Amino acid sequence: MEAQTPDGTRVATPNPVAASSSSAPPAPKGSYASALKSKPTDWHIQFSMDDNDLPLDMTVYGAVHQHIMRGDDSAALLSNLWNGVYTIKFQKVPGPAPLEGKLQRRRRCSISSYGQSC
Fold this sequence. Notes:
single chain, alpha+beta, three-stranded antiparallel beta sheet, two-stranded antiparallel sheet, 4 helices, elongated
């Protein structure tokens, strides 16, 4: 089989019959749907704010609220929540994402309407 370039030059094309006659069976290919269903294991993204790792299911608002509540004057800062600039860092980390129950944070805090406990 031959193909032609726009100026008329003939170019040889690979022969699919000859390529498929190799002795090794073709490697099975995974489908896109199966790739989406499986959890990635080669790397994941890790988010952090002020050297505290953030859970993957935490919202930006939740991260900012947690950051403010760790401060000394959290009541005054909370009223100015939308006036501040907050930095959330991320990095590519090798390996699978940590399980939510086994998330290792440098400092664990829980915040409720009754206050903060670390």
